[in-house]
Amino acid sequence: MSRTVVIHQPEYFPWLGFLDKARQADVLVLLDSVQFDRSSLQHRAKIVGANGPLWLTMPYVHRFPQRIDEVELAADRWSVKHQKSVQACYGRAPAYKQVAPQLERVFSSVHKRLVDVTVPSCELLLDAFGVRPKELLRSSALDVKGDKGDLVIEIVKKLEDALPLGPNRRDLPRRRGARGGGHRARRPEFRAASVRDAHARRSTEGSVRARRVDAARRRRPKVLFARRMRWPA
């Protein structure tokens, strides 16, 4: 029987899409053996306070190239600031007291490397949302090598009968005789609900007039929406 493996880079308090992928996984692999990307969310997270969005960024020692599991943190004062910021933004939330002890452990632990923070932050959210894969692994502990799709294939082969979920199809070998033995990736179907989605759900349960209004909006020429978009050159 095949298993579903999700491969995702460890991020600092990752977003809901990560949790949606993880809940579909039998095996969750945190991909910490690839190149660190300073433009990503691997060392920062966005929270929302009374004055709007706020970035929590961990200072790190910049070296190039370096893997995610090799990145060292530059100082330790950031953890106190981050903890106070999270408390100021969410301290009055109904469930804050329940997760406060776990947050305390994440922020008060000794942090030498980036993964000493990002991996526990991922585990905290998985536990808080009740997402519990059967196995949680780090790619740095699997002793696999490769680049992009080849690395994904090597991880899947290491885990034997596993079906990868998440990477782009173009990253994987497509020919049945290519390296990887014909493994295919499934893309997750998660997307955040929009205001239009909520309106559509209410319309189907509402009055006949609401359904007619919704139908009229769908009949509008698509060019009206295209004029508002900036298409790439």
List keywords for this structure.
233 residues, alpha/beta, four-stranded parallel beta sheet, two-stranded antiparallel sheet, 6 strands, 13% strand, disordered C terminus
Structure report:
With 233 residues, the chain is α/β, with parallel strands linked by helices. 36% of the residues lie in helices and 13% in strands. It has a 4-stranded parallel sheet with strand order 5-2-1-6, sandwiched between helices. It has a two-stranded antiparallel sheet with strand order 3-4. A hairpin with a 2-residue loop joins strand 3 (44-49) and strand 4 (52-57). Helix 2 runs antiparallel to helix 3 and helix 3 runs antiparallel to helix 4 (115-128). The longest helix is centred in the middle third of the chain and has 14 residues, at 115-128. The radius of gyration is 21 Å and the shape is globular. The protein starts with a strand and ends in a 7-residue tail after the last helix. The relative contact order is 0.16. Residues 167-182 and 221-231 have low confidence and may be disordered.
